[in-house]
Each structure stands twice: as C-alpha cells, then as structure tokens.
Specification:
The chain is α/β, with parallel strands linked by helices and about 260 residues long. It has helices spanning about 35-40, 65-80, 90-105, 125-140, 140-150, 155-160, 160-170, 175-190, 195, 215-225, 240-245, 245-264, and strands spanning about 1-5, 10-15, 20-25, 45-50, 85-90, 110-115, 205-210, 230-235. The chain has twelve helices and eight strands. Strands 1-2-4-3-5-6-7-8 form an eight-stranded mixed sheet, sandwiched between helices.
C-alpha cells in the first residue's frame, strides 16, 4: 500500500485485524525486517509495517529528519483510518517513535522501544556517520550495508546462524543511496530525546539484545529509569536486531505486553 505525503510516497503493509500495531524499522533495513513479528501477530492484531522514506518501497524525497519520518507515520495512520496505535520502533525506528510522541502523542496508545537510545549522537558517532555518508557517495549503499553488518547482529548469531546474517545483509543492501545519505543526515541532526522520557505517559516496553554493541543494554536501562512504569526485557544471545535474532523471545514479550494493555 502507498500513502502519499506531499510529493513523497510512503509504502506500508497493513495485515490482520484487532489492536493496531505500527512497526518502524532500523537503519539501513526496511519493513521486511518485521516479518517474524507480523507472521506471529497478524492473526490477533492489525500490523502496519512502514518503509521510512528512501527505504524499501518509499521514495527518497527530502527533507530527511526524524520529525519528517514521524509525520510520515502519522500520514500512514490517516491513510489506514487508524486513530491510535501501539508504536514499535527498533534503533532508528525508536528515534522516530520518540519524535512521534513529541509531535502527536494522541496517536500513540503504547510504546515498544527496542535496541535504541534516547541521547543524541556523540561527536565520535557523528564522525562515523559522516564517514558512512562519504562511503555512500563514493561506493554506494551496498558498501554502507557491509560496514554496518557486524554491528547489526550479535556475536552468537554471527557464529551460529549464518542464515540470519545472510537475510539481514540481503535486506540492508537494497537501500537506496539517497535514502541512506538522508537517513544518516537525519540521525546526525536528531535531538536529544532524554528530556522526552519523563513525559511518556503510555505503557512502555523496552527491549534490548544482551549482545547489542550499537545501543547496548546500558542505554535501555537508562530509558527504563526515566520512563515511569516501563518494563525492561533483555534478550540473551541477541544483538542489535533482537527481533530477527531471537524472534520467538521477542514475540513472547511483545505479545504479553499487548495482552496486558488490551486488558486494561
């Protein structure tokens, strides 16, 4: 499906019935990374997976910012006729979830923040992102994906599950150059969301892979400490893409969380 936002097209899938759950993907992947979740949940919930502009089936039309990405999510909700949804964001998707909460909190029924951080980039991280922009400009987005791959999956997955590593690579290498550069610029410029945490008043689940080296468990614990009433789950033998590396465990904690908010 396509939602038209100005001169941009935002691609999304909308499957299942029940509580609407929106899934926001990591950099540099697309909405297909959520297949292990939608296949498990679509029998009971309405799952909307969205391609951030410049990734998957969405056009690479600027401006690129986490606020613009959040507005795209709201536009998809409008197109789908959804007033409020549970918003699940992993990594970059978590940054977009923070922005959506700041800009349109009424659209958020609950939050799931997976393998993400609240703080802005450190100077060193900004420098690494600028290096990746140069790589994208000179060598293409496939080269960026190759450089990111080791950080996207955990040590256990790399050693024991080459099929998962292959699947992540196949997803990541399809990113467009313009979308890759735009996202990196958006990540560099994104604001510090730490002050946002105390304002979050909806049920919140925080999930992190124990082996995540990009946004390690200490980042998840910092979010947990500042979001009142939040729940923290650390998944063993999972890295940054905890939903892909430990899908059954991720689905279990997500399913329990959804059932709890539905019963309130």
């Amino acid at each position: 499906m396509i939602a038209h936002v100005g001169n941009a097209s935002v691609a999304y899938d909308d499957i299942g019935e029940g509580t609407p759950v929106v899934f926001l993907h990591a950099f540099p992947l697309d909405r297909r990374m959520w297949a292990p979740q939608t296949s498990a949940l679509a029998g009971q919930r309405r799952c909307l997976t969205i391609d951030t502009r410049g990734f998957g089936g969405s056009t690479a039309v600027g401006p690129f910012s986490v606020d613009r990405y959040a507005d795209d999510v709201a536009a998809v909700l409008d197109a789908a006729g959804v007033t409020r949804a549970v918003v699940v964001g992993l990594s970059m998707g978590g940054y977009v979830a923070f922005a959506l909460w700041r800009r349109q909190p009424g659209r958020v029924r609950a939050l799931v923040l997976a393998d993400t951080r609240a703080g802005e980039d450190s100077p060193e991280t900004r420098d690494r992102r600028r290096e990746l922009i140069h790589v994208a400009q000179t060598e293409g987005s496939v080269a960026v994906a190759e450089l990111q791959l080791i950080g996207l999956v955990g040590k256990t997955t790399r050693e024991r599950r080459p099929d998962i590593v292959h699947g992540v690579r196949e997803n990541a290498v399809r990113a467009s150059v313009d979308g890759t550069i735009g996202a990196l610029e958006a990540l560099i410029a994104r604001p510090d969301s730490t002050p946002t945490l105390s304002s979050i008043s909806v049920p919140t689940l925080i999930v992190v892979g124990e082996e995540d080296v990009l946004t390690p468990p200490k980042e998840a614990r910092a979010i947990h400490a500042l979001v009142f009433g939040s729940r923290l789950e650390v998944l063993a033998q999972a890295g940054h893409l905890s939903n892909v590396e430990r899908p059954a465990a991720f689905n279990a904690v997500l399913g329990e969380f959804l059932s709890a908010i539905e019963s309130d």
